[in-house]
Amino acid sequence: MAKKLSSDTALFAVTVALVATGLVMVWSSSSAQAQESYGNAYHFLIKQVTWAALGLLVMGAAMRMDYRKLRQPVVVYPAVVLTTLLLIVVLFMNPVNGHHRWIRLGGLSFQPAELAKLTAVLFLAYHLERKGERVNEFLPSLFPALLLLGWFAYLIFIQADLGSALVLLAIGGVMLLIGGVRLRYFAGLAVLGVPLLYQAVMTAAYRRDRIEAFLNPYSDPRGTGYQVIQSLIAVGTGGVAGVGFMQGRQKLFYLPYPYSDFIFAVVGEELGLIGACAVVLAFVVFLWRGVRTAWKAPDTFGMLLAAGLTLAVVLQALINVSVVVGLLPTKGIPLPFLSAGGSSLLFTLVAVGLVLNVSQHAD
């Protein structure tokens, strides 16, 4: 009798709960600024609902396909080529806030960096499984993996998006470790990488300012330290139970980007410690179920695919929350499922759909 396929119910439920929470908080955090800027308080909410609906449809499609069909050169290498082209094309787009991160098509826009994370996970899962016992041989195994990660990271970095480039490298590094690459190679990469990271930070004035603001935000409270100070005020004002839904004040033109990069601060202010902990707990459950899916995957490709995609979501959540509470320098990393942003939500739901697909075949 054929095995009846069923996805991880807990993973599916926590994903839907996070998406729903995101829609509610986008509405609360963006309505005032949307009314001021666009004359329509529902501007950001309508866009987010549209992307959420599209993302859930694509997630459903990813759940129904067989993930093992992705383990083909005819899928992997065209994905790498397409991602490379988009990462190059975006450099010729009109800059937004001085950065070349978005490709705009009419009223829609997306960040190729989000696609690059998915493509890197797909390539590494395919490549590491194919190499098997030869994973620690440099030229046939490590070099192609490092070349792809370095190439994607470089193209993202020159868009002036160091944060996303580092996230990509972190995801790739963990996948290589899970795939069996020896620790001594990571030591060598660290020796090469730390000076490059130092150079990347110190040669850009705004990155140096972010580091200084992280170390002492009150040294320039109206300048470089403004974002983190306003974020901490929002989180601190919420207390245990919060000031109430829609009652937050920091989103009223004090907190920069309250509906995207700093939406977790609005959660902390309006829903308090209880609401903030509930969101964090949801990501902990997501991590648990994603790791469980990877552990029980029937093959190496499925294991690496589920692990890499789970890490991609949870790592971004960890970075975003850490920035909001002042544990990391300010970066433009959105909070998955919650932050307003079409491409981020769409590609995150595609990733979840693939993890749910792997969970159907888990042993």
Structure in a nutshell:
The protein is mainly alpha-helical.
Biggest sheet, strands in spatial order? 1-2
Please summarize the sheet with the most strands.
Answer: 2 strands, antiparallel
**Main structural class:** mainly alpha
Termini separation comes to: 16 Å
Contiguous low-pLDDT stretches (5 residues minimum) are: none
Proportion in helices = 55-70%
- The best one-word shape is globular
Order of helices and strands: HHHEEHHHHHHHHH
Would you count the extended β strands for me? 2
Measured on Cα atoms, how large is the radius of gyration? 20 Å
* Count of separate structural domains: 1
Strand content: under 5%
The count of helical stretches stands at: 12
Question: Average pLDDT, to the nearest integer?
Answer: 90
Give a description of the structure.
The protein has twelve helices and two strands; from the N terminus they run αααββααααααααα. It has 363 residues and is mainly α. Strands 1-2 form a two-stranded antiparallel ribbon. Strand 1 and strand 2 form a beta hairpin. Helix 1 (9-38) runs antiparallel to helix 10. The longest helix is centred in the C-terminal third of the chain and has 34 residues, at 263-296. It is globular and about 55 Å long. It starts with 8 loop residues before the first helix and ends with a helix.
Characteristic terms for this protein:
2 strands; 363 residues; globular; mainly alpha; 12 helices; two-stranded antiparallel sheet
What order do the helices and strands come in, and which of them pair?
Elements: H1 9-38, H2 43-64, H3 73-89, E1 103-105, E2 108-110, H4 112-131, H5 138-157, H6 162-178, H7 183-202, H8 205-215, H9 226-238, H10 263-296, H11 300-324, H12 342-360
Antiparallel strand pairs: 1-2
Helix pairs in contact: 1-2, 1-10, 2-12, 3-4, 4-5, 4-6, 4-11, 4-12, 5-6, 6-11, 9-10, 10-11, 10-12, 11-12
